[in-house]
Every structure is written in structure tokens, then in C-alpha cells.
Design goal:
Blueprint lengths: L1 H13 L1 H6 L3 H53 L5 H23 L1 H18 L22 E8 L11 E8 L4 E5 L6 H8 L7 E6 L2 E2 L5 H6 L1 E4 L8 E2 H6 L6 H10 L3 H4 L9 E2 L8 H13 L5 E5 L7 H14 L4 E5 L11 E6 L2 E6 L1 H7 L2 H10 L9
Parallel strand pairs: 3-10, 3-11, 6-9, 9-10
Antiparallel strand pairs: 1-2, 1-4, 4-5, 7-8, 11-12
Helix pairs in contact: 1-3, 3-4, 9-11, 13-14
């Protein structure tokens, strides 16, 4: 109950605006009161045990001393026991019951420690699903950034009846090429990105970077080749410059140059502290679009060989998006880029567009080639640019 209380309270306080927007204040207060009552009952039970255990130990201690004095006194009066031996037995009896008395006083503390240790040991005993190789292949010198998926299948569970998220994904991104992944929500586009970053390992098939299976590479070395802009933005508490560098081997000048190239300097220069402006928790003092620009600059500051963009322009305005597209045309030169996009206007320049549907690549080709086919991509294009047709993709 204690963990549930803390989690519920933390979530509701963080999402207070959503709770207020949907008028859930009374319902959430009742949920918290219900969990709090459960916690109170558990606490009262522990106090009851303490209230019973401590007097019982004290009573047994008193009875033992009384019996000892009664029996020892009789033996001392009959000269079969000395007073010194009786005093020694009294001291030994007190020392015997002292640990039990201390244990009764520490009962509540022990209960709390046992509950905390259970959670801690449960976390320590959790085995990571992705393990670094025992003898990793060294990072290729002069990495070219070639990426290849070879018959990759993946599902999140290990049970035979768990559904496949990806089925037979096969494609190759040559150095300097831009590969776009499009398709409806839930098709598996972000999962492809997660597999390339080795957040998970494929269930079947393999993924190659410069001809080396990524399972043979050290994850830190692999991710050092990749610049990633995630769909869910996250900024750490601290100043903007630290969020761009993240304590990596990146100079502040390189980080500021990356921010300038993506247009983030437009709003950074307006801040009172500039690049040393301290951000709030998760960057709340910035708009969503500004946080996205910082995330984009953070990925480019490391000068990666591979760029992964998961809806990188979904929260920026048209002017900022146009500026990012101009920067991308220069930054993608000589880099392998894999772009996940729902807005087809952002991937018209891609060398190859992969249409992912139900975990499979249904169509592949350039923008003009896919339009000429008249399939799923043509339907998505018509829905976005002409407003015709139905909103479902069969």
C-alpha cells in the first residue's frame, strides 16, 4: 500500500492539469483516501503487534525475576545458595531478556526495513534482457554508418502465443542515404529504431552496422555512432549547455554550433541566462517545440555517423520545421539517416521510403515510385494532402 500511495500521489500531482481538465479532483481524492486508509490499517496492525509484544516481554521478565527471587531466597535462607550466586543469576536473567526487549522496541523499524529490502533486492536480482558481449568486437575505425536489417522478427514477450510486432523486416541503408519509415500508428516503426539502438534484441534475424552484428558490439560503442531524437522528449534539470553536452566528450562550442544549425539559438539568446539558463524539471519552462529543438541539437552535437529521427518535427511550427529541413539537408550529407514520420511532407527527399503496416514492410521505393503504385503510400498521401478517402489503412 505504501508504494501505491506514493505512486498515485506522484502521478496525480505531476498530472494535476489533466486531473483538473477532466474534472477528476473528487474521484482522485477518493482513490487516494482509499489507499491511504489501507496504509493506515497496515500501520495500526503493526502498532497493535508492538503494543502486545512489548508488555508480554516485560511481563515475562518480571515473572522470571520474581520466581528467581522467591526460589533463590528460599535456597539462600537454607544456606544452600550464596547471596552472590543469587545476584549473578539475577543479572544473567536481565541480560537474557534484554535482547527481546530491544527487539520489541525495534519492531516497527524492522518491518519498514524488511519492506524496503524486499524491493531493493527485487531490483538487484532483476537480470537485464540485453547483455553486452563477453568479447565485444572493437568499434570499426572510420565507421561508414551502413545499416542492414536481415529478416528481423520481434515480439516483446517470450511466450509462443505472444503476437509478433515485426515480421521479416529486411532493408539496407547505405552510407549517406536517407531511409524513411511511414505507416499508421502501431505499425512497428519506433520498434525498428529501438532494435537498432539495441534497447531490445531481435527474436530472429540480425541487424548489422558496417557489416558487424550489433550483438557483437559494446552497446556504448554502438550508441556512440548514433544520434537519436526520440518521440518522447526529456530534458534534465540543469542549464541548457549541460543538456546539450550531457557530460560527454563534446566541447561547449560544438554544442552551441549544433544549436545554431537547427535554429535553437533563436530562443536561447532571448533567455536571461542564455546557454547557462537553468531549466525546470523536465524542461517545463520551455515550450514543447523548444524542447524538441534542444533534443535535436543534442543529437547533432556528437557528430554521429547515423541519425535516427523519431517524429523529429512533430511539435515545431512551420517556420522552425522549414529551418530544420534546411539544416538536415547539410547535416545528413555523408550520414546514414533513418526517419520515422507521420507527416509525409518531411520525407519527400528520402532516398527510400518504407511503408510499414502490421509489422511488415508492404511497400518500398521513392516518393514518386510509391505514388505511381497507388497502394498504401498513395492512400496516406491522399489523406494528408487532399483530404479525401477514409482515414483507415487496410
Amino acid at each position: 500500500p505504501r508504494g501505491a500511495d506514493e505512486r498515485l500521489l506522484q502521478e496525480r500531482l505531476s498530472g494535476m492539469r489533466v486531473v483538473q481538465l477532466f474534472g477528476r479532483e473528487a474521484a482522485e481524492a477518493e482513490s487516494f483516501a482509499r489507499l491511504n486508509r489501507s496504509h493506515l490499517q497496515a500501520h495500526l496492525r503493526s502498532i497493535t503487534v508492538y503494543a502486545v509484544f512489548f508488555p508480554v516481554v516485560e511481563f515475562l521478565t518480571t515473572v522470571a525475576l520474581a520466581l528467581l527471587l522467591w526460589y533463590g531466597g528460599i535456597r539462600a535462607l537454607s544456606d544452600t545458595l550464596t547471596v552472590g550466586v543469587l545476584a549473578a543469576f539475577i543479572q544473567l536473567t536481565r541480560r537474557f531478556f534484554q535482547p527481546l526487549q530491544d527487539l520489541s522496541e525495534k519492531y516497527n523499524l524492522l518491518q519498514s526495513a524488511m519492506a524496503s529490502s524486499e524491493r531493493i533486492f527485487g531490483l538487484l536480482d532483476t537480470q537485464p534482457e540485453v547483455r553486452p558481449p563477453t568479447a565485444p568486437t572493437p568499434r570499426p575505425a572510420g565507421a561508414r554508418g551502413e545499416v542492414a536489417f536481415e529478416d528481423v522478427w520481434f515480439r516483446y514477450g517470450d511466450a509462443p502465443d505472444d503476437p509478433w510486432v515485426l515480421r521479416g523486416i529486411t532493408f539496407r541503408a547505405r552510407p549517406g542515404e536517407t531511409i524513411a519509415l511511414v505507416g499508421p500508428t502501431g505499425a512497428g516503426k519506433t520498434t525498428i529504431i529501438s532494435l537498432l539502438l539495441r534497447f531490445y534484441d531481435p527474436s530472429r534475424g540480425r541487424i548489422l552496422v558496417d557489416g558487424v552484428d550489433i550483438r557483437n558490439l559494446d552497446p556504448a560503442e554502438l550508441r556512440g555512432l548514433i544520434g537519436f531524437v526520440p518521440q518522447e522528449l526529456f530534458l534534465f534539470a540543469g542549464d541548457i549547455e549541460r543538456n546539450l553536452v550531457l557530460d560527454a566528450a563534446v566541447s561547449p562550442d560544438a554544442a552551441r554550433h549544433a544549436a545554431t544549425r537547427v535554429g535553437a539559438d533563436r530562443f536561447i539568446d532571448r533567455l536571461p541566462g542564455g546557454y547557462l539558463q537553468v531549466l525546470g524539471e523536465r524542461g517545463r519552462t520551455l515550450s514543447v517545440g523548444e524542447r524538441q529543438l534542444l533534443s535535436f541539437a543534442r543529437a547533432l552535437a556528437r557528430d554521429p555517423r547515423i541519425l535516427l529521427l523519431d517524429e523529429a518535427t512533430s511539435a515545431v511550427d512551420a517556420m522552425a520545421e522549414a529551418q530544420i529541413q534546411l539544416a538536415l539537408s547539410e547535416l545528413m550529407e555523408g550520414r546514414t539517416s533513418i526517419v520515422v514520420a507521420h507527416r509525409l511532407s518531411t520525407i519527400l527527399h528520402a532516398d527510400q521510403i518504407l511503408v510499414v503496416h502490421h509489422g511488415e514492410i508492404r511497400e518500398r521505393g521513392t516518393h514518386q515510385e510509391l505514388l505511381a503504385v497507388g497502394g498504401l503510400y498513395h492512400r496516406l498521401h491522399r489523406l494528408q494532402f487532399r483530404g479525401g478517402g477514409r482515414a483507415e489503412v487496410a
